[in-house]
Amino acid sequence: MKQYLDLLRHVRDHGVDKSDRTGTGTRAVFGYQMRFDLADGFPVLTTKKLHLKSIIHELLWFLAGDTNIGYLQQNGVSIWNEWATADGELGPVYGAQWRSWTGADGRVVDQISDVLAEIRRNPDSRRLVVSAWNPSLLPDPSLSPVANAEAGRQALPPCHCLFQFYVADGKLSCQLYQRSGDIFLGVPFNIASYALLTVMMAQVCGLQPGEFVHTLGDAHLYSNHFEQADLQLSRTPGPLPQLRLNPDVTDLFAFRFEDIELLDYAPAAHIKAPVAI
Ligand SMILES: Nc1nc(=O)c2c([nH]1)NC[C@@H]1CN(c3ccc(C(=O)N[C@@H](CCC(=O)O)C(=O)O)cc3)CN21
Ligand SMILES: O=c1ccn([C@H]2C[C@H](O)[C@@H](COP(=O)(O)O)O2)c(=O)[nH]1
């Protein structure tokens, strides 16, 4: 994962020190792009063990249109706990926008089903876009994430806010625009999650996986992740593992956890880092 290590090194060595909402402090750059050819293997970090179970369950949870952390907790995934209400609600976050975007006229749009149908019908389309950014549901900045979720607004504004698909030479590519990226904790999850989504979408559309293009807005390293970043940069990357999906699945929404398997993942040890809330 040279692309990721280059990003980490670039921000560490050339970023600007900047204060942030959480009060932690960051080093940041604005505007950065990475490209991952999915034929080279599955883009997951080998210089730090990633909790793939969290990544897979989170993506299945988004695709199910769910916004309550109950499913995640039942499956041992705790990454959204800090932002949820006592009832597990996060407000209308990713799952709601992907599967049931509600327009001003009350019409409910399933953006994922629509984009799937359009990839199959008109793969040359330049409109294969899914947006989680819904200005009418953004949190009130004067309230905490939990207070926003309690008021029916999003606990946090979407970080991975817009993605687009592209078909050429029988291959499906995906580009993500992520407005804000926690390089040490969030970004490795985001890369693996969108790469997995692209491979799943390709399979159900009868296409080969192409590239995942990751475009970041504010790409930041939190100041309490500097030592962990140095440790990670001292490690040598290993070969990428291979993703294996159950080939019998032809409906995107029918994938189960057991249908998704990573072969030959042999990462270096996990590196613990505190999450900024
Ligand atoms: N500061 C911050 N960074 C994020 O990446 C982030 C947020 N906030 N808020 C909302 C979601 C939640 N996401 C998270 C939250 C925590 C981890 C995390 O602690 N990861 C650890 C443990 C993994 C696990 O328990 O599965 C890691 O080492 O990767 C990762 C992504 C991504 N998002
Ligand atoms: O998928 C995700 C979700 C969140 N993040 C990070 C990016 C920021 O560090 C925080 C969100 O804070 P904002 O002040 O709303 O930008 O969470 C991520 O990297 N990936």
Q: What are the defining features of this structure?
A:
6-stranded mixed β-sheet; 10 strands; binds 5,10-methenyl-6,7,8-trihydrofolic acid; binds ligand LAUPNLSC; Thymidylate synthase; Thymidate_synth/dCMP_Mease_dom; Thymidylate_synthase; transferase; cytoplasm
- The amount of helix comes to 25-40%
For the record, give the distance between the C-alpha atoms at the N and C termini, rounded to a whole number. 27 Å
Spell out the helices and strands N to C. Answer: HEEHHHEEHEHEEHEHEE
Tell me, briefly, the overall form: globular
Secondary structure class reads: alpha+beta
In short:
By secondary structure, this protein is an alpha+beta fold.
Describe the structure.
This protein has 277 residues and is of the alpha+beta class. 29% of the residues lie in helices and 24% in strands. It is built from eight helices and ten strands. It has helices at 2-14, 52-63, 70-74, 94-100, 111-121, 145-150, 186-204, 226-233, and strands at residues 16-18, 26-37, 101-102, 108-109, 129-131, 160-168, 171-182, 208-222, 242-245, 260-263. A six-stranded mixed β-sheet has the order 1-2-8-7-6-5. α2 (52-63) crosses α7. The radius of gyration is 18 Å and the shape is globular. The chain starts with a helix and ends in a 14-residue tail after the last strand. The mean pLDDT is 97. Bound molecules: 5,10-methenyl-6,7,8-trihydrofolic acid (MHF) and the ligand O=c1ccn([C@H]2C[C@H](O)[C@@H](COP(=O)(O)O)O2)c(=O)[nH]1. It holds the Pfam family Thymidylat_synt. Its EC number is 2.1.1.45.
